């Protein structure tokens, strides 16, 4: 241990930590917990230990695509799903009327309790030290990162380092014409770490996100808003939770008005977004209210979702109303909305710019290509959202632990989960705007239902020691019970009184019909199911979509052959004959790891993949059968 350091904690036998995790947001919590649960000594460093897993923006977890990620985190042994099941205050299943592949659970959180609950898990975890300090420098030598330098504790050595800096890297907040440094309202930015990353050759770029004002619920006329109750029974997130906290409150729906839009248009020049103060690129799929008014002038109204921040506070979150307009304008435009005429703002909305690193700088296991043993996760990689951050944090923590143990990395494929889709998108395509997960990003979404994440991923979690034997056995038992149910359906015909309608067909053939549900089987058709409703839904999906699923699996098998062909890291794409100049440039910029990753790049044609495949095969033949040098030839003569 360096003489400058004054910290020991749960170090390994070499006097250092196996893993250091920087940043205690949603990515950092999953990374630190995963690494410590895999047997590593972990130092978990945050600027403010009172804000572990803080919900800096909306007080909710899940949604379309995002809820799928939370289920996958749980199946791998992460913590987000169990925490929201314990601290959620309203639960819904979105897209219930659509196909099962795009249904996603969402829960309104008690944001204070969520943060407190996850902090308790972190503090109780063995081999994990949570400390408040600022990382001002990375310790890097010729072999890669070797630790960090903290403001108070000095130099601390580690085998691997995971950075989960969120919006704190050189963060700058904007409200109207006022700008001030910060990682979020009330917290300072991280400047030393940003400078250290630049000194180590990383190109830091800027992105922008925003948050809406918080409202005093005592000043809202809820009688003029549309109530949005939770679902009964409330859908749970975790495969490992016995129950959820339940529906304790209602959310509400408000709508903007033409007068509200006029106020916004009249003050656009005072918005940080349109005055030129903000240079970072914002998220297209979650624009500010002024951006909506500018981009969709034909719209007479926009939704505002009025969501409670918790059970012990009267604050409400104005979802869909993010803004960087001045405070006086925020008051005026909110008070032009029906039900909010007398509303009081408790905290203003603001925009925040922050630094990120192009994720094409990363390997698919989230280790940087530039500095060995350094891992990045969360918004530093250009993503937005708690769920996207947590999914990356979990994978980064697993791989940091594997690296510290001298084991090969774990790469999740696109067919295994949305986390795999997200990471492949990031490392292959990079980011031009904050990345947000949607089910449409997956070409195999029919195979990635949120309900089947346990079957797809628990084997990995169990292998890493993050899923216990009983949980894994219970998953296998449920899987066997579903297979037994399918067998029973295929060998049972409907009752005599139903044969005029269905004929002498098996129940398996009958439920394939779009107008027949599992409730029909167990009701008027008299089938005695041994499954609960969640497993019945999975069986029904498997039966109704069997043909589509088989076609998808055949397509994946073809594409996976391309994913199995690695592209040499040092390949010179300019030397590949038959490639167009723009394709060579795109390949050189992205440097995809496999032919499959190359295929997914925009503008890469099947012909280009064929040419590249032939060239790689020729390189491999040359390596196996090297030509003799001129000197060797002379000696033979």
What would you note in describing this structure?
The protein folds into four domains: 17-61 and 76-83 and 110-210 and 354-434, FAD/NAD(P)-binding domain, CATH 3.50.50; 214-351, Elongation Factor Tu (Ef-tu), domain 3 (Beta Barrel); 489-549, no CATH class; 564-624, DNA polymerase, domain 1 (Orthogonal Bundle), CATH 1.10.150. A hairpin with a 6-residue loop joins strand 16 and strand 17 (315-319). Helix 2 (66-76) packs parallel to helix 11 (453-463) and helix 12 (469-490) crosses helix 16 (533-544). Helices cover 35% and strands 17% of the residues. Strands 1, 2, 6, 7, 8, 9 and 20 form a seven-stranded mixed β-sheet that branches. A six-stranded antiparallel β-sheet has the order 14-15-16-17-13-18, with no helix packed on it. Strands 11-10-19-12 form a four-stranded antiparallel β-sheet. It is globular and about 80 Å long. It has 637 residues and is of the alpha+beta class. The model is unreliable at 633-637 (pLDDT under 50).
Main attributes?
637 residues, alpha+beta, FAD/NAD(P)-binding domain, Elongation Factor Tu (Ef-tu), domain 3, seven-stranded mixed sheet, six-stranded antiparallel sheet, 35% helix, disordered C terminus
